[in-house]
Design a protein that fits this description.
Elements: E1 6-10, H1 17-30, E2 34-41, E3 47-50, E4 56-59, H2 62-80, E5 86-91, H3 94-104, E6 109-113, H4 119-134, E7 140-143
Parallel strand pairs: 1-2, 1-6, 2-5, 6-7
Antiparallel strand pairs: 3-4
Length: 149
Amino acid sequence: MNHSKKIIIALDYDSNAIKIAEFGYRFAKSIDAEVILLHINTDYLHYSVSDVNKNLLVMDSEADVKKTTLQFLGKIKKHLKDTDVNLLQANGNVAETILKLAKSLFIDVIVLGSHSKSWFENIVMGSETEKVLDKTNIPLLIIPINKPE
């Protein structure tokens, strides 16, 4: 069976998103894998968070959420300077959606951040990373993100 390797890099609106993307991207290139940048929009549609450039994002509709997500992922793709990077946004529970997509897309490795400086990602991604780890047999590359001292 000759299928090309695929890596999914799950990112959240956080200043560490670029760091996670860079680590995941370098790893993907080292094993000649296709790269997919992923952001999961949770069920709450009205929320405000700061993006990687410290801009306040306010999203009032599903269309706003999707547009903002694709802009966010697009900025990271541009930063990686690779036009072959794919962007994917999905809605739902973070861990469940990552696992479902990883299985359906035949992902070889899932890249996640472990902790963050933002309370939002600490609540969402910290525990979500643990849930993904607990419920998958797909290898994970977990990028440690240090909390502020």
